[in-house]
Specification:
By secondary structure, the chain is of the alpha/beta class. Helix content is 35%, strand content 19%. It is built from nine helices and 14 strands. A three-stranded parallel beta sheet has the order 1-2-3, with helices on one face. The chain is globular and about 75 Å long.
Length: 299
């Protein structure tokens, strides 16, 4: 069972729990809230942080003497640690070919009105480590290519914002080189390419509407992440039953149509539905009441 720490959860006082969380103050407070009091949510907590935790947060945990005996493990999960380089596990896969570093404040810290280069450099360092971590895990050493600032000459001043792609590329490359020195199984020469671009390369993309099958599902259906919940009539005449559909990589139709234009996807779904109904007697009876989402037939 995998649950969100920020959602209300059923108490399981007879079971142990594994926490895999980022070492933020908010997450630590939620964890302490779960395990404090006379009736903690779980019997014991095995806590694993996705990156290095600050001394301040460690002390916050130590202060709660009621929680300490209920902690079975408290560790940081990292690929390596060398010369202050900490390769963490803080990235999130979207699908088999995509991931995000989930740095929600990056836009503000890099391009905000407050021209604070210290914050910007710290933000770039976090992003670089997370990007490099992915390449380390898949054992790929990329050519790191980036878009250089337009004006790089002695007579023209360049700002921190102009150099963001350059600085990020350098930081990613440095992380990979340091990891390569400590890992004998890591490639010794480049195996792929990494392109680092900023939004100025394609300024229109954020303001246009996506017309792909995946985008339309998220627009038109009430999805929770990739989960769609719908109701079907009860066979016993009682209240409607709830069903779930997961639009993920294990769904062959969803995987096939994910990036197809909705017009093309609609035609292909119609063909698949027609073929399904022709081979299924139950579907022939209820054919007019069904509509497809992923590889499920939803009434």
């Amino acid at each position: 069972m995998v649950e969100d720490i920020y959602k209300r959860r059923q108490p399981l006082p007879s079971m142990d729990a594994i926490y895999f969380i980022q070492p933020t103050k908010e997450n630590v407070i939620m964890f302490l809230s779960d395990m404090s009091g006379r009736t903690p949510l779980y019997k014991k907590a095995f806590v694993f942080f996705s990156s290095s935790i600050s001394r301040e947060l460690v002390n916050l945990i130590k202060k709660d003497t009621l929680v300490l005996p209920r902690i079975g493990a408290l560790r940081e999960l990292q690929l390596s640690q060398l010369d202050n380089l900490q390769m963490n596990l803080e990235y999130f896969t979207i699908d088999s070919q995509g991931f995000v570093t989930d740095h929600e404040r990056a836009l503000e810290e890099l391009f905000g009105d407050d021209d604070n280069s210290r914050k910007g450099h710290a933000c770039l360092n976090v992003m670089a480590i997370r990007i490099a971590t992915v390449f380390c895990l898949i054992a790929e050493l990329p050519f790191v290519r980036y878009r250089a600032a337009k004006f790089l000459d002695p007579n023209t001043a360049t700002t921190f914002r102009d150099l963001i792609p350059t600085k990020l590329a350098a930081a990613v490359w440095n992380c990979l080189l340091k990891y390569k020195e400590t890992s004998p199984n890591f490639p010794t020469s480049e195996t792929c390419e990494l392109l680092i671009l900023d939004r100025s390369v394609d300024q229109i993309a954020p303001v246009i509407h996506e017309w792909t099958y995946d985008a339309m599902c998220h627009d038109l259906l009430n999805l929770e992440g990739n989960k769609y919940v719908y109701e079907v009539p009860s066979k016993t005449g009682g209240p409607p039953e709830k069903k779930e559909v997961l639009l993920e990589d294990h769904d062959p139709i969803g995987l096939e149509l994910r990036h197809a234009h909705i017009a093309d996807a609609s035609e292909r779904l119609h063909e698949k539905m027609t073929n399904f109904i022709s081979k299924n007697k139950a579907a022939q009876i209820h054919g007019s009441r069904f509509s497809p989402v992923g590889n499920k037939l939803i009434p």
